[in-house]
Amino acid sequence: MFEILQHTADVRLRVRAATLEDLFRDAMRGMFAIAGFEIRDSGFVKARVAIDSVDLTSLLVDFLNAVLSRAQIEHVAFDDVTLKRLTETEIAAQLIGRPAQFTQDIKAVTYHEADVRFVSGEWETMLVFDI
Amino acid sequence: MDARHFEKISDVLWEIPKSHRPDMRVPARVYATEAMLSSIVSDRSIEQLINVATLPGIRKYALAMPDVHEGYGFPIGGVAAVDSTHGVISPGGIGYDINCGVRLLRSRATGDELQPILAKLTHSIAREVPSGVGRGGSVRLKADELDRVLRDGAARAVEMGYGDEGDLARIESRGTLPGADAKLVSDDARGRGSDQLGTLGSGNHFIEIDRVAVVFDVDEAARLGIARDGIVIQIHTGSRGLGHQVATDYLRLMTKAMAKHGIRVPDRELACVPFRSSEGQRYFGAMAAAANFAFANRQLITAGIRRAWKRELPDDAIEIVYDVAHNVAKIERYEDVGEVVVHRKGATRAFPGQPVLIPGSMGTASYLLVGEQKAMRETFGSTCHGAGRVMSRTKARTEINANELRERLRDMGIIAEAGSAKGLVEEAPEAYKDIDAVIDVVARAGIAKKVARFVPLAVIKG
User: Fold this and answer.
1) pLDDT tens digits, B400-454
2) Which of the residues B244, B326, B343, B385 is marked catalytic?
3) What is the pLDDT, as a whole number, of residue B285?
4) ipTM > 0.90?
5) Is the alpha carbon torsion for B133, B134, B135, B139 positive or negative?
6) Which of B110, B162, B283, B361 has the greatest number of CB atoms lying within 10 Å of its CB?
């Protein structure tokens, strides 16, 4: 589950999920909800992302930035992710999306306010996008 | 944090002493009036400035300009000079839009001459200069051609036929930052920027045709070819997707490398490494390359404006007044601290006599300033960069009606050519601070001098 919130200069996203896998998936879907897009083609596009980071919070931010790069270079809105591997510091995933035209430019996913935590039975974090 | 934590240095300068927090290495200083200060403390910009004051090697003070607002790691409107031998470099001190900056052009036409063709001219410029989310341009560079742009910046754009040698003399660092290394720019960064040279982008980036409404300093204005009722054009954009990716790539690299260098920072976005380290030098080389891409970008946009202008006003000629970066790190030398890496994030270099370009929001005003000697002693030759946002984009979209805004601008005699209603309302005048108040502070502080005030006639936005 994600919720888009206000930020003076940019956009905040609050993400909550029962599992870590869902947190990564919902954060990615939230990012594309912020980017806004129009599907240009009915075909599906697949892409792979494999990265490592220093901790879980960095891993989520770095993963989203990797997805953002693929999306902007290939003009694809990804709406699903199959996780091949997910640890505290590593992720390998296959992304599935469609060719799209974005309506909001996202410069980057920032580490600002990001803090992946397991609280009261669910995973949560805030994310701030530089737009 | 509230106004009581500040010690008053003058009516427009306030200081949080080093003793405020044990990890501060230098005091934090804010240029603002007392009234502005109460607004500034309402977000986290001062907390961020205090975090900047903890950076290894920072000299004298962490500085905030009167347009300061909350950013990532550094506040936007922040300046930090870090010892080049023993200090660090932090991508957060430059920002994601490397060498976002402003170029000011001047026309020989007067407002009266321009008025009958203004709408057509504005539309013509909008057709010549692609703008909007993800919009690519007509220039597609092969890898080796992109390398030359990354290495030589505006100079390469001139070699490609977009302008002449005379243009380069009127660009900060002649449009080429030394030390740029194209090899350090990733394939992803190249992928995001490969078709974006000569494009404006979206967000707060714009082209604006302005009338010179007030000349404060006739001699300085004459030196820069500016006269009352004259026509100037502003270009505000940066290094586009290429620069965003360079920042992302190296922030990630530094986050990993900090432990190796034994560095801890209070905010992940302040990730940094010693400037002289391999990682520090690699970032500096990639940042300079992205900055050069931005200088070339503004050069190609200038060429597009010149083409449109030539069609509508064949006897006129467009010349560059100046081009300044407001998101960049540069090696500079100061008498009291020696060689430092000056991080300016949402802050403009303001060396004595150097033109400084401060855009306001559409519907208000913009300023041409020149730097003052006092800036070299107090602010590492720096001043503000704009009005500074006060309203979120979401709130602007909910509270401002695009048609009403267009009407309001039209009543003010301003033509708005925007790619989307969303892009227009997000940048409405009420979303920004009062530019006049911001400029008054830097003028009263003696770090920059007012030369001229511009009012908009036409705005082109993505």
Assistant:
1) 898 889 889 989 989 998 877 887 888 888 888 889 999 999 999 999 999 999 9
2) B385
3) 98
4) yes
5) positive
6) B283
d(CA A7, CA A123): 22
Q: How far apart are CA A126 and CA A117, in angstroms?
A: 10
Strands (E), A7-121: 11-17, 37-39, 45-52, 76-86, 90-102, 108-110, 117-119
Single-letter residue type at B411: D
Let me know if B385 is a catalytic residue. Answer: yes
- Residue A85: Cβ-neighbour burial (10 angstroms; 0-12, 13-18, 19+): exposed
Residue A100 distance to chain B (closest CA, Å) = 11
User: What's the one-letter identity of residue B38?
Assistant: S
With an 8 Å Cβ cutoff, is A33 touching chain B? no
By C-alpha distance, the chain B residue nearest A5 is B394
* Structure tokens given for A100: 């799209």
Do B181 and B291 meet the contact criterion of CB atoms below 8 Å apart?
no
Q: Name the band, by pLDDT with cuts 50, 70 and 90, for residue B397.
A: confident
Query: Do residues B159 and B340 touch, judged by C-beta distance below 8 A?
Result: no
Q: Tokens at residue B56, please?
A: 């290894």
Q: How far apart are the first and last CA of chain A?
A: 22
First to last CA, chain B: 37
Q: Cβ–Cβ of B69/A8 closer than 8 Å?
A: yes
What is the pTM assigned to this prediction?
Answer: 0.96
**Per-residue pLDDT, A9:** 66
